[in-house]
Amino acid sequence: MHRRGDNRKVSLRKYLAEQMKNPRFRKAWEEVQGENGLTRELVRLRVEHGLTQAQVAEKVGTKQAAISRLEHRPPKRPTELLCKVANLYGCEVRAHLRLVPVRAR
Q1: What is the pLDDT of residues 83-93, one digit of tens each?
Q2: How would you classify residue 97: left for phi > 0, otherwise alpha for psi between -120 and 50, otherwise beta?
Q3: Which domains does the chain have, with CATH numbers?
Q4: Cβ(39)–Cβ(74) under 8 Å?
């Protein structure tokens, strides 16, 4: 719960809904959620396969620290390492594009 200045409790869901009305907040939130979705999925797949970061690193030919970085701060674009890890889990890396209104110049 989040406390506001008037001491009313506001649920996170309601607070987030209120903040999402701000276009700048919404854009930043969606960018972070996209990044977090990838990191959550990488960790979920590793755990589902019963592997440690060190084991994944050994299987794809890198160091454990590189897997940790990949799981916590994914690159802005797919890299060779991300593709190798996805392949290990029987997955492929896909880019998703979405239409965003472009301001006239």
Answers
A1: 888 889 898 87
A2: beta
A3: 9-88 (1.10.260.40)
A4: yes
- Joined tokens for residue 65: 């620290």
User: By the 8 A CB rule, do 53 and 47 touch?
Assistant: no
Indicate the pairing of strand 9-10 with strand 2-3.
Answer: antiparallel
Q: Provide the b/e sequence for 76-94 (b: ≥16 CB within 10 Å).
A: eeeeebbebbbebbeeeee
d(CA 34, CA 12): 19
How confident is the model over 42-49, as a mean pLDDT?
A: 88
Placement of tokens 């674009």 in the chain: 77
pTM above 0.70, yes or no: no
